[in-house]
Amino acid sequence: MDRQAPGVEVWEPLAAGYEAWFASAQGAFIARRQTGALAQAMAPMTAGRALEIGAGTGFFARELARRGWRVDAVEPSAAMRAEGKKQTGDLHITWHDGTAEALAFDTGSFDLALFVTVLEFVQGPGEALAEALRVLRPGGCLVAGILDARSPWAALYRHLADHGEAPWTAARFFVPADVEHIAGRPAEWCGAAVFMAPEAAPPFEDADSAGVRAGNRASMSILRWRKPL
Length: 229
Known about the structure:
The chain is an alpha/beta fold. The chain is about 40% helix and about 20% strand. It is globular.
C-alpha cells in the first residue's frame, strides 16, 4: 500500500480531472501567465537538474523538462502521481513518492527546487523550505509560487473551503512576507502573476490589465532564494 502523508487524501478524487483545468480557456491563460512569471524567476539560471516538490500531475514539471531541465518530481498522492506519469510522455521526468518535509535526496543534489502552490497544503512549511534548501547545491535556487492571501482568488478559495470543497478545506494562505519569515531569510527576487478576478470574462488579457488598474493583489506571488556558496 502506498504511504500517504496527512492531508494527501483530499487530492485522490481530484486527480483524474485535474489536467482539464489547464485545458480550459481561463486555466490556459492563467497557466501561461504563471509559467511566464516562473520563467522570469529562473532567468538567471542555466538548465540543469531540477526538483519539483508537490508536482501534482506534472504540468510545471513538463514545462521545466521542455526548457531543458532534468526533472525529478516528488508527489505524495498516488493518484496524482499516476496521472502525472501518464502525462510525462518522453520528457525527462523521474517521479517519486515522498513528502516535502522529508526529501529522499542527498544534500546538494539539485540546481533548482520548485514549489508551485504547494506550501499552502504541506503540514510543515518551514520544514519543507529547509529541506528544499538542503537538497540544493551551493548557488542553486529555490523558487516558490504561492497563492497570495490578499488576492480575490484566495477569497474565493476561502469561501469554497467554508462550503467544504476540497482541496481548499486543507489549505492555508500566505503573503510573501509570511513565507520569508518562515524561510528565515528575505527573498532575493519577487514576482507576481494574474491580477484578474476569478469571475472575469474573456478577453482575459484585458481582464488582467483591468485587475492591475483596480489594484488587485496578484493571485500568485513568486519568491526566489539562492543557496549561499
